[in-house]
Design brief:
By secondary structure, the protein is α+β, with helices and mostly antiparallel strands. It has one domain. Helix content is about 20%, strand content about 35%. Strands 1, 2, 3 and 4 form a four-stranded antiparallel β-sheet that branches. A hairpin with a 5-residue loop joins strand 1 and strand 2. The longest helix has 14 residues. The radius of gyration is 15 Å and the shape is globular. The model has no long low-confidence stretch (mean pLDDT about 95).
């Protein structure tokens, strides 16, 4: 299995006060939707499935959720293609430089 499509819960976290404040996006595979996780050998097939989930599933599970740019956000679900098994991102918390 070269590519995996999974439903992730993505949100935004405060990175620090530098330059007036900065934020970064983070996400993790959503266990409550693991039944939609699927592996593919070809990237085109994985992308096609991701688009399918974006059109058919995500509108209903994101209904009523605020955008991640909102301070009241609890995250939004996204279909994401990864190489290998799904894992949280980013690997390390970013630092302002």
């Amino acid at each position: 299995m070269a590519y995996t499509v999974a439903i992730y819960l993505v949100d935004r976290a405060y990175g620090g006060p530098e330059e007036g404040g900065w934020w970064y996006d983070y996400g993790f595979p959503a266990e409550e939707y693991c039944q939609y996780t699927k592996g593919f050998m070809e990237s085109d097939a994985a992308i096609e499935y991701m688009y399918y989930l974006e059109a058919s599933l995500l509108p209903s599970i994101n209904e009523g959720r605020r955008p991640i740019s909102s301070v009241l956000s609890t995250g939004k679900f996204n279909a994401i293609v990864t190489e290998g098994n799904p894992k949280p991102f980013p690997d390390t918390i970013p630092r302002y430089e």
